[in-house]
Design brief:
With 249 residues, the protein is an alpha/beta fold. It has helices at residues 3-26, 45-53, 64-73, 93-99, 109-121, 155-162, 186-202, 219-224, 234-237; strands spanning 35-39, 58-61, 81-84, 102-106, 126-133, 143-144, 167-173, 210-212, 229-232. It is globular.
Length: 249
């Protein structure tokens, strides 16, 4: 790990925090409402170590096994949170329940039931966000929320998840279609916020405070539309270091 790498990541991190703060104030929000998750997917351990040295304490991983390898390879540090932000296969549920502070991408009742069982074995309650597909893309995970006429279809699943004793829903997450112009993503962020308000009306007993939306390409627009978590990787730690062509897909 080189001092230059640490300095570069710290500079990018502070710049991103400043951009988040400006976007928050522009929309009449407090910057303290927004939490930055630095995405270290496909980054080598050296980059993760540099991120920690730069003062970053909230890290996001897309693949459970890769994330756990990093967690176990680094010395335990107080205040460091590991978030799972990518699609989780049911057979990887145990890894998430055992090692991560928050799952952003809960996308099925089946996965929820497995997570609930494994979290119970760990004597913990796992915080989760429900993932919704606001763009209707077949390649994206999450319940289909691309049109409000679809919203009633997933209400039974939401109700069942809220009843699971070892999971705690804290809000919603989405990954909208990749747009050339960040402004084009605004309508998808607005849709997720409207869906959150709809679910909060139907299930007032639950906690719907969090909205995880926005990446390196569009996080300032996401903040303006109500994001409480933004997931930023390449803008802070640089391009991903893919190990294979399959990872790059």
């Amino acid at each position: 790990m080189t001092p230059d790498l640490v300095a570069s990541i710290r500079e990018n991190y502070l710049f991103t925090l400043d951009q988040i703060a400006n976007a928050a104030r522009k929309s009449g929000r407090s910057p303290e409402e927004i939490k930055l998750v630095v995405v270290t997917k496909s980054q080598p351990l050296e980059v993760v170590q540099a991120a920690l040295e730069a003062g970053i304490r909230r890290l996001g991983e897309n693949y459970p096994e890769e994330g756990v390898t990093k967690i176990q390879s680094l010395p335990r540090q107080s205040g460091v949170e590991w978030h799972m932000i990518g699609h989780v296969q049911s057979r990887k549920a145990r890894l998430v329940a055992e090692h991560f502070e928050l799952l952003h991408s809960l996308d099925s009742l089946k996965l929820a039931q497995r997570l609930d069982r494994f979290a119970a074995e760990q004597n913990r309650v796992l915080p989760v966000l429900l993932e919704f597909n606001v763009g209707g893309e077949e390649s994206k995970s999450g319940w289909d929320a691309s049109d409000d006429s679809h919203w009633n279809a997933f209400l039974p699943d939401v109700r069942s998840i809220l009843d699971l004793p070892s999971l705690r829903v804290h809000g919603l997450m989405t990954m909208p279609p990749l747009e050339t112009d960040p402004e084009d993503a605004r309508r998808f962020f607005q849709r997720l916020r409207l869906l959150r308000d709809h679910l909060a009306f139907i299930f007032p007993q639950a906690d719907w405070r969090e909205l995880s939306m926005g990446t390196s390409a569009d996080y300032t627009v996401a903040v303006e539309e109500g994001a409480t978590f933004v997931r930023v990787g390449t803008a802070i730690v640089g391009a991903r270091r893919y190990q294979s062509a399959k990872e790059a897909l």
